[in-house]
Amino acid sequence: MLAASVACAPTPADDEASFLRDVQAFRAAKDHAFLQPDSPVPADKRPALLPLAYFPPAFAYRVPAVLRVSTDRASIVMPTSTGQRRNMQLVGTLEFTVRGETLSLGAFVEAGSADLNRLFVPFTDLSSGGETYVAGRYLDLDRTRTGIYLIDFNRAYNPYCYYNPTYDCPYPPRANRLQVPIRAGEKVK
């Protein structure tokens, strides 16, 4: 729906050496996928955009989080890059710490979706509009039974509208605008 299958990831490695190999393999797979005919990157833009630009892998941006489940099942409206409005349901708020800062991000699914197993986490941070895409980046998380998650910002990705304006990409809500820089994951060229 909102991300290529390469944005899905197995459980990341626990030690730094395995982590680095895992991130490098993930990035290589994504670059390969973006060279395919069904890529969101138009063929004429591939020489300028591929391989994708990334921050160096950083183990410090791989952090545990607790999902505080929302008791309010009402949907919120997220404006999108094409001027549409997307109805999203807040599943809960992820609470975590990055580099000593306590932070939180809302986790969403499409409103009315029967499948709550894949959480969509759009965000902006203080790198947005400079080092990263001005409209923000996304994370996708597989739902856990425990409510404990591993957020790996090294897997933060640009929405497809960064590569191709025909894609309809939701803008992160105000509550998902982090007031710290997240120098991990995809950058802009």
Description of the molecule:
The protein starts with 15 loop residues before the first helix and ends in a 37-residue tail after the last strand. The chain is built from 2 helices and 7 strands. The chain has one domain (5-176). Mean pLDDT is 92; it is low at 1-10. With 189 residues, the chain is of the alpha+beta class. Strands 1, 2, 3, 4 and 7 form a 5-stranded antiparallel sheet that branches. A two-stranded antiparallel sheet has the order 5-6. A hairpin with a 2-residue loop joins strand 3 and strand 4 (101-110). Helices cover 12% and strands 29% of the residues. The protein has helices spanning 16-33, 46-49, and strands at 62-69, 75-79, 85-98, 101-110, 118-123, 137-142, 148-152. The chain is globular, with a radius of gyration of 16 Å.
Multimeric state: single chain
Query: What is the ordering of alpha helices and beta strands?
Result: HHEEEEEEE
Count of strand segments? 7
Q: Compute the gyration radius: what is it?
A: 16 Å
What characterizes the major β-sheet? 5 strands, antiparallel
Shape: globular
Secondary structure class reads alpha+beta
Uncertain parts = 1-10
Q: How many helices in DSSP terms?
A: 2
Strand fraction equals 25-35%
Q: How far apart lie the N and C ends?
A: 25 Å
In the residues, how many domains can be counted? 1
Helix content: 10-25%
Mean pLDDT: 92
